[in-house]
Design a protein that fits this description.
MetI-like fold, mainly alpha
Length: 292
């Protein structure tokens, strides 16, 4: 193995056609990801006059902002855990269960669509279903049960969490399905030959093998929920003080207007979601070794 050489040899081997092919992706990443992120980082340390300051970052520790981060983390963690548990159960049923084969293709197709269904349409769908005059709410009233008098409120922590589950569960199914497919049938047959029950197989073989994938998917689901704003804003408005809505209020400037603080809020969100995605990538890489 030759040591040294040109460290940019990979790039010098690229043909003109290859460069032209990847140029749109590079331009897109620069314009809509790298440059805006760099602008947020710079803006987080500037005052309205453009001078360097740490005040914006220090303001993240104020009670209102700290509470908004805490609520966002709670919603993200709760929707991620519930979405992972329900999605795992559904994925196991359609892949390892004895359901008709056509159900798997139907569920996977629906999951691909539902995992991308968010924002104003999703909020309207839940308001029309579980709002105070929603279809399910009215039907339950006819049945003698008042959903809202029992304590439920769609414009609350649990209401937003349930709404997030609509796209969290399908995303979990899509991500965990390949890992479940990677469980070799020979493992189950060998366990059964040695006298292990189905429960013992999952306790000592199945779940330990899937565990890294589950942890990685939890991180991804957390990041997915933590950065969502359109669904939360369309559903709850400003009644639930989560970080994306507070950030929107700071930048929009109807009442609050502090672009520097908004940039600091965005920087805090970037750090949290980046950590969650790094955890996902690291765990995912290690999990792939188990499934080879």
């Amino acid at each position: 193995m030759r040591v040294g050489g040109n460290p940019f040899r990979f790039f010098t081997r690229l043909r003109l056609g290859d460069i032209i092919a990847i140029a749109p992706f590079i331009i897109f990443a620069l314009l809509f990801l790298l440059i805006p992120t760099l602008g947020l980082v710079v803006g987080a340390f500037q005052d309205p006059q453009g001078n360097f300051t740490l005040q914006n970052v220090m303001d993240l520790a104020t009670p209102q902002i700290a509470a908004s981060f805490w609520i966002s983390i709670r919603v993200s963690v709760t929707s991620a855990v519930l979405g992972a548990a329900i999605g795992l159960a559904i994925a196991l049923a359609i892949i390892r269960g004895k359901l008709p084969s056509g159900i798997r293709s139907t569920v996977m197709t629906f999951s691909g669509v539902a995992s991308q269904f968010a924002g104003i349409p999703l909020s309207f769908a839940f308001l029309a279903t579980l709002g105070r005059l929603g279809l399910v709410t009215v039907l339950l009233k006819f049945a003698g049960f008042d959903l809202y008098k029992s304590g439920f409120n769609l414009l609350s922590f649990w209401g937003l969490t349930i709404t997030y589950l609509y796209f969290q569960i399908p995303l979990m199914i899509l991500i965990i399905a390949p890992a479940i497919d990677g469980l070799k049938k020979e493992w189950g047959e060998a366990a059964a030959t040695l006298g292990a029950t189905n429960g013992q197989f999952w306790r000592y073989i199945g779940l330990p093998v899937l565990w890294p994938n589950l942890l990685g998917t939890l991180s991804l689901l957390f990041a997915n929920a933590f950065g969502a704003i359109a669904t939360a804003y369309a559903l709850t408005g400003s009644s639930l003080n989560i970080v994306p809505i507070l950030l929107y209020a700071q930048i929009r400037g109807d009442v609050l207007h502090n672009p520097g603080l908004g940039a600091a809020l965005a920087l805090g969100m970037i750090v949290i979601t980046a950590l969650a995605n790094i955890v996902y990538l690291v765990i995912r890489t290690r999990a792939e070794r188990w499934l080879k």
